Every structure is written in structure tokens, then in C-alpha cells.
Amino acid sequence: MSEPEVDYAAVFQALPGAVALLTPKLIFVDANAEFLRLRDLTHEQLVGRYLPEDLPANDRPYLLKILASLRRVADTGERDTLTLERHDVPDPDQPGVWHERYWTLTNVPVFGPDGRLTLLLRRVEDVTELTELIRAREVALTLQEAMLPAPRPVGRHPAAVRYRPAAEALNVAGDWYDLIDLPGDRIAVAVGDVVGHGLSAAGVMGQLRSALSAASLVAQGPARALETVGLYARTIDGAENTTVATTFIDWDTHTITYSSAGHPPPALLQGDGTVEFLDQATDPPLGARPQHAPRIQAATAFREDAVLALYTDGLIERRREDIDTGLARLADSLARHQADDPETLADAVLTDLLPSGDATDDTALVIVRL
Question: Rounded to the nearest 10 degrees, how much is the dihedral formed by the CA atoms of 327, 330, 336, 337?
Fold first, then answer.
């Protein structure tokens, strides 16, 4: 069967990026439809035009960078890329109004059959939206990190915390954790997950984390703390359907009292290697009920040197996989590394459950040695 004949002219026109061809003397000889659309010119208006005449004279640094790049390609026979160059464009409907834009410019040599450089290929890509997304992610990460407590011992009890953004996401999510000293030999440990991404989710996360921290200091148990935060969540746009798990740990009685608002269950690793998932007090997420209602809580005993792990769903959930599989994976990892200190154990759990570059959701993790 013979190979199909390729219409390279049609391929050139169909390229998704803006591409033009110039002679080594910087004269346009061709351009695809996207390049012509970007320049708002017809093919006849562009071909034969001298490149410096086509570039904005009001932005001399931008012009000089482009010319220098093309000369490097012509002199060396190697491609040259200008990444993230700012060049504002006028608004066609509002005279005198300019819009901030960012571009990636790639210049590539094209050689003839005799090996001599015959053309320069110029590719222009508008990356403004991607730049804005990256900026928003950086701001949201900074905000999120500023609102999350720094790793520290709580009372006399060693603890480790971890936060890992999703590998493939441009925006952070609203995952959070908190550790609160309570009167007596007690602490509260909580994790939560706000629906959504970006600055809005990070802002909601900060409000709910602070509210739960305050409520935990005065409430008679985790269920009452979540009831208070649930009422507050009804007044905040974007807080509905937030999931939270909170635990009150009491070393005088060696008990953990817990309550969950639609969140994955905390894991309790006992000294004999058995893992218990604290799933006997799970209610709907915050704001999910039509009417406010009391929440439930449960309690379980722990032995000295046990380990408590709280986490968000990014640690255990995978696409097209039952959640029980992820919970079993977590239990196995905790049991295998039960002798480790909290810092080492936290790293081991992340390594076992989130291979590098494979996280599809943000993850918060808290490990407390009891």
C-alpha cells in the first residue's frame, strides 16, 4: 500500500499556532491563517513586507529582541526562543486602550536540499492566559501556606504535617489542617477540604480553619465544634459542601473523640500493627443539609505509642478505583512504617501513596504519635 501524499501547504495553514516564513533578509514570503488573524492582515498585505516595518515602533526593546533572535538563527543555524515577552496590544474597539499580553516567540532555521539556510520560520504564541493562571496559583499557594500552621510539636506530643499540591493542577485547592492545644493534656487535630480551586477556595479555607480552631477551644467535643462551624459556613459563599474531620485527643483517658462532616475517616494505628478507621461518626458535609441539625460524635480508646493519621481525599482516591482500595493502601503503609518517628512516617506514607508527579488532587496529611 503506497503512502498517502502529504499536502504540506494545507498542513502549514492548519497549524494551531501563528507561523510565518521569512527570507534571511527578513522579508515575509508566507504565513498561515492564524498568523494573519493575529496581525489582522490579508496574505497579500503581508507577503513582501519587511519584518521591522511590521513590528511596533512604539515598543523598541521588544523590536530589538525579535531582530536579535532572528539574526542569531541566521548566523548560527540554530533555533532561538524568547519566552514570556510582554507586548501590549491596542483594543480595536477602544482607541487609546491597551491590553497587557505575554508571548512566547520561537524562530527556527529552514534549510534547503544543499544544506544552506533558505528561510526563517517565526512562531508566535499568546500565553497570557497561562501566565495569569500560573500567577494565580503562586498567589493562592502563598496565601494557603501563610494560613496553615507551621510544623511544630503540640504540647508534649510529636506531630508531622505535610501539604502537597496536585502535580497536574494549575490551581491549588482548599485543603487544610490544624492542630490546637486544648486545656489539660488534650489537643484537637483537624483536616478539611473546601470545594473548588484558586484564591477563592484558599480564602474560604482560611475562614473555616480559623472558625474551627476557635470553636474547638470552647466547644464540648468535636461534634459541637463542627455544628458551630457549619452554621458559620452557611454565611460564606463557596463554603457549602466543605468536608472536615476533627478529633479531640485526651491523654488522661487515652481516648479519641471524633466527628466527621463527609470527610474520609482518620486512621488509628495501634502498637500491634492493626489499623482502625474512625468511621462511626460521619455526617454530611458542611452546609449540605437543607436545615441545620446536631452532629454526631464517637470515641475510641488508644494505647501508648499508637499513631493517628488525618488526611484529605487526595491521599487515597484514584480515578476508576474504589475508595476501599486506597484505604487499604494507607493502612498497609502505616503498618509497615509504624516504628518511624512522625516526620519519617509522613514522608513514607506520601512516597507509598503518591508517587512523584502522580498526584491528581491536593493532599494534606497530619501524623501524631500518641
Answer: -150
pTM of the model: 0.64
- pLDDT digits over 196-247, tens only? 766 677 778 878 888 888 889 888 899 999 999 988 888 888 888 889 999 9
